[in-house]
Amino acid sequence: MVKLTTDIVERKYSQVLTTKSLSKTKQKNELWKLTHLHMNDMFISSIGNIAIYKNLKVLYLQNNNISKIKNLHFACKLTHLYLQHNAIIKMENLESLHNLQKLYLGHNNITIIEGLKSLKKLQELHIESQKMPLGESLCIEPRSAFTLSMCLKVLNISDNKMTSLRTLTGFQELHTLNAKNNLIDNINNLTTTISTLTSLKDLSLQGNPVTSVYRYKENLIANSVLLANLDGKIVTDTCRNFMKKFKLEKYNRHTKNSIKIPLEDDITNSLHLPPAFQRSISRAIFQHPGPHLSIAFTPGSLALGNQLQILPAWKSASGIKNTKDNHVMPRPFWSNVVKDNKNKEPHSTHSYVSNKAISLTLI
Q1: Which residues are within 8 A (CB) of 229 and not within 5 positions of it... i.e. 6 or more apart?
Q2: Which residues contact 31 (CB under 8 A, 6 or more apart)?
Q3: Which of 19, 29, 135, 175 shows the greatest Cβ crowding within 10 Å of its Cβ?
Q4: Across the beta sheet with 36-38, what order do the strands follow?
């Protein structure tokens, strides 16, 4: 059990200075000027009072036994903090590190990304491979997520049993995301999140169930803005533009199919009638006020009003050449009008479509 104190720092640097044959006294008095402090692989279990080193910019504490982050309130100039391969359970006491740019916390026991709401200059967060209790996964506290969404550029959250990336929605500065070996399996949630990462260029998702989904890569490329590298493979501008056009065309096709057809067009189109007859029926049904008109199909008949009229078969007019290219030409329906001045009766109009007649009944 070793506690990080000024004595430990002086002892280590005395050994270093001895090997370099330098004056111990002179260098010891100048230790407060240190900007880089290498205390990795020292079996350190806790961080003591080292506030004398106010000029620290880079602090190496990886590969120790540290279980709690503390006593770093003095390090307002710190830009890099290395704490990977320790026994840290909670992210805390980082509020004073306003200039911190890179934070390394991989291979600890952290379950929640928290305590970062004051770190508005943080650009890189490496928190991969956390040792978690059974059934838990890494998550991001909302206040920290809000701060990180405006500054974070590199994020490594691989191997953390995560099932979704929805908490990363809107991370506008993020350009590199490593989320390998998690449990992400929903392609719709994933593409929705990726579409909001407007600066994302490098994305790694190997080892997730979602990678086996049909057209997984095509969906991600089509929903990204600047993605240039997906799972270690280059995505060209040509490929990305093609996928975007394909997505747009698919969307337009879906939208077109989902547009509701007006009732009159739906009815007349379903009858498969000649265009002129379709327009006539449409006008009769929808443009003139009056009694409702229902349309029913009666094979071989046409009903007008309450009278059922039997439609005769097509006949060729006598005296008219009724063949053309060895095909019989039927006589137009208007040629069947019988002029009888004595017995004037309403005449029905006959038309056949696909050997089926149409009955129009006034209700």
Answers
A1: 201, 202, 203, 235
A2: 9, 10, 13, 52, 53
A3: 175
A4: 36-38, 58-60, 80-82, 102-104, 124-126, 154-156, 176-178, 202-204, 229-230, 233-234
Beta-bridge partner residues of 177: 155, 203
Pairwise CA distance, residues 67 & 180, whole Å: 26
Burial of 119 (0-12, 13-18, 19+ CB in 10 A): buried
Question: Mapping DSSP to helix (H, G, I), strand (E, B) and coil, where does residue 62 land?
Answer: coil
- Cα distance between residue 206 and residue 181, in whole Å: 6
pLDDT in tens, 209-250: 999 999 899 889 988 889 999 999 998 888 877 777 766 666
Q: What one-character DSSP code corresponds to residue 353?
A: B
Confidence of residue 312 (pLDDT cuts 50, 70, 90): low
Any residues with CB less than 8 A from the CB of 306 and at least 6 apart, and which?
none
Q: Which residues contact 287 (CB under 8 A, 6 or more apart)?
A: none
φ, ψ for residue 172, nearest 5 deg = -75, -20
99-158 per-position pLDDT tens digit: 999 999 999 999 999 999 999 999 999 999 999 889 899 999 999 999 999 999 999 999
Cα 213 to Cα 216: distance, rounded to the nearest angstrom: 5
pLDDT surpasses 50 at 31? yes
Single-letter amino acid code for the residue at 155: L
